[in-house]
Each structure stands twice: as C-alpha cells, then as structure tokens.
Amino acid sequence: MTVHKELVIDFSDLSDMVIPCGKCETRVHIKSGEPESRTPQECPSCGAEYDDAFREALRAFRQIYRKLADPKGRTVQFRIATLDGPR
Question: So where are the chain's domains?
Fold first, then answer.
C-alpha cells in the first residue's frame, strides 16, 4: 500500500530565498518581500557572477511574491505532495 501525504503552504511562506553558490557553496539569503533589497550580481564570497537571465528571474519572482503574498489580495497556496511507503 502507498500512502500519500500533502503539505499545503501559503505563498507568503516563500518569503526567504536561499541561493547556494555552485562554486563555493556559500548561501545568499534574500527576503522576497523587501523591495529595497538588491538582487545580487555575484557570490559575495568567491565572486562567481550570476548571469543576467538568472538575476532577471530573481527580480521577477520577487515582484510576483510581493503581489501574491499581499495580505490584502487573494490567498494563494501551494500543495506539495509526498509519497511515503513502499514504491
């Protein structure tokens, strides 16, 4: 028998973004909802550059986050399904 579980989270729970560096494994933490927070251009530890497309995707996510996590707007949730038991 297979047991399915699911976790439902509010979009606003995605407030902290972590970007691990592929070169040195340093983790950069970004608060998605803070408009004054800059989008990093490079790893602060080793200087590995984040390409323009990646940086633009980060900016776009942060704009989407601010809109969908707005407490005055509609509630948006994610359903994360997990599979437990024998496969």
Answer: 15-73
